[in-house]
Write a structure and sequence with these properties.
This protein has 6 helices and 8 strands; from the N terminus they run E-E-H-H-H-H-E-E-H-E-H-E-E-E. The chain has 196 residues and is an alpha/beta fold.
């Protein structure tokens, strides 16, 4: 039951009593506490992700998975419940079930979609840089390069070279391609002659 009163509270004030079920009360409190303009923290998102995959996940297993203390997991869950993103229910005396609310699912989906958009934007950027390097190599009539590195950024460059017909060799030749921060680097090396 929720009670509202007028301010100031005189002795003769009329109380307005609105009968609400426990669920209705919880939903109203969650909606009042939800702060849509406050960005969700990375660990909160990880907790939402884990809950979306397994509603009966324990705080202990979450703590192990996230690499944080159980008390921190408890704090994140309370924060998510307070913001209206997660609902907690008792399975039995010792087990809890965590469910994403519609608001929680919306935040989770929005964040996941933003991650996908950002990832595609980064991929497009590296792909454009790789195309520029390959065009320069083609203009210099270079048909074979050595790639220094074996990560996702270099995989984009490897794919672009192969698509353009530029061979990849294992041993360094006179052209070595590598990644440096958010860019690619081309190094033209002088090869020593066999007589040296």
């Amino acid at each position: 039951m929720l009670v509202f009163w007028e301010k100031p509270f005189p002795k003769s004030a009329h109380l307005h009593i609105l009968p609400l079920t426990d669920d209705e009360c919880c939903v109203r409190i969650q909606k009042m506490n939800a702060q849509a303009d406050v960005p969700i923290k990375p660990k909160e998102f990880e907790v939402l992700d884990a809950i979306s995959q397994d509603a009966t996940v324990t705080q202990s297993s979450l703590a192990s998975h996230l690499g944080i203390a159980v008390g921190s997991v408890n704090w994140y869950i309370k924060r998510l419940v307070g913001r209206g993103y997660v609902k907690v229910s008792h399975l039995d005396r010792t087990r809890l079930q965590y469910d994403l609310t519609p608001e929680g699912m919306s935040v989770f989906t929005d964040r996941a979609m933003q991650y996908v958009k950002d990832s595609l934007q980064i991929y497009k950027s590296f792909r454009q840089k790789a195309h520029s390097i390959v065009a320069e190599l083609k203009a210099r009539e270079i048909s074979q390069v050595c790639l220094d590195g074996d990560d996702e950024i270099m995989d984009i460059l490897r794919l672009t070279c192969l698509e353009a017909g530029i061979g990849i060799c294992d041993a360094p030749n006179h052209v070595v391609l590598s990644s440096k921060g958010q860019d690619y680097q081309v190094v033209f090396q002088q090869l020593k002659s066999q007589a040296d």
